[in-house]
Amino acid sequence: MRAVVPQLPEFLRELLTSDVAFVVLFVVFVLEGAMLLYIAPSELLVPGALVLIGEEYLFPILATAVAGATVGQYGLFLVAKHGGREYLVSRSWFRLDESKLDRFDGWFERWGPLVVPASNAMLFTRGMLTVPAGFAEMSSRRFLVLSAAGTLVFETALAVLFVFGGRVVG
């Protein structure tokens, strides 16, 4: 479990040990939530922050992660809501192709808004239902609550596994 830190890029490790660590962590999670972070897997961010900033800052790290990811997802939600499918698919920074987007649209149509927190709480689907929620013109308030709830579950699970798993292993 402690091998998570070498997997983070060097510049990110340095920033997360600086005086502006929580600002950097917030920005990193905004990028992660907006599906723009390509430098590190989202599953490593909270464990990496716990190592670099310190486990004694567990709750501020979780709060920063949830707030940042929610802000990032909300930005993507608004782009989907106001820009539409064609706009997003034509953007080079948007990584979902038509077939994946169709699949996630289907999930949203079948299960409704509850897939937003469910997808945010699972590996490999984090944030993927943000775009269909925007296309469906879900209310902003509802999206924010559901997005934050799913992110809180995901990040808390990672932190608990890391802290307690690390103590058992280490």
TrEMBL record:
It is a multi-pass membrane protein. It is found in: Cell membrane. Pfam families: VTT_dom. Residues 42-160 form the VTT domain. InterPro entries: DedA_domain, VTT_dom. One of its GO terms (cellular component) is plasma membrane. The chain crosses the membrane at residues 20-39, 59-80, 143-164. Keywords: Cell membrane, Membrane, Transmembrane, Transmembrane helix. Its main location: membrane. PANTHER family: ALKALINE PHOSPHATASE LIKE PROTEIN, UNDECAPRENYL PHOSPHATE TRANSPORTER A. This is VTT domain-containing protein. It comes from Haloferax litoreum.
